Predict the 3D structure of the following.
Amino acid sequence: MRLQAMAKINLALDVLGKREDGYHDVRMVMQTIAMYDVLDFTLREEPGIFLTTNLPYIPTDERNLVWKAADLLMRTYDIRSGIGIRLRKYIPVAAGLAGGSSDAAAALVGINNLFHLGLTTQELMEKGALLGADIPFCVLRGTALAEGIGEILTPLPAMPDCAVLIGKPKVSVSTKTAYENLALTEQTERPDIDGMIEAIRQQDLAGITSRMKNVFEPGIEAKHPVIGDIRELMKANGARGAMMSGSGPTVFGLFDTHAQAQKAARALYESGLAGTVHVTRTFHVSNAGPDDERR
């Protein structure tokens, strides 16, 4: 079995406050994009989880979320046979695109399908929440409002189709670092998430892009000014809107057409500001093709 683990962007991201358990309550609008890692699953007679990757610095043991996701289901449902998983990573690591979370979500789906466990999407999302806050959305995919620590999801109508330009500078940012650089005050500009949801319902791309805001962006940009340079280059080359995704440092721009995004991608590549430059599209479960469908 071969599955695609798709990246996400945050169209809006607000942090509401810190909880007693140390986590933060958030409110976000999340969107799947058709940029993906690939996981190949093979049944093995020998018990155990055998994970390999195309990148030498990616762990292949219990430190990897794919391994943890497979182990969770195999222990819970007493699966005695083994599984081989080959992970080919193309989503940048520590980039604010939920690559690791999406890989784990694909592992949950893959184990469920291969061993005929019969778990529903909701049940897989609940299992994913035990491992990471972004994993439930990566199981669900599409367009959604995320609340709580990110695990409380409300599916939204598909946002308008548009081209997406991804630009990751040659730096990495951990979620821990993002929170350390977050200073919320009465003057903090918060995203109009309710307004964005209404713009999505109205299929109003201009209304969506005008409300794009990420409360992590100012603190991370202060530490890495290249984020602002990439954002402004995208806007100067036709992006309807551009913003840092998640905890960063990846910047995404939304464009009306693939041709516009490709033109901006060339300008971004030539600028040398980004180590990863990639043009893709928004992904919606309703328009998934045979290569995209996982269930």
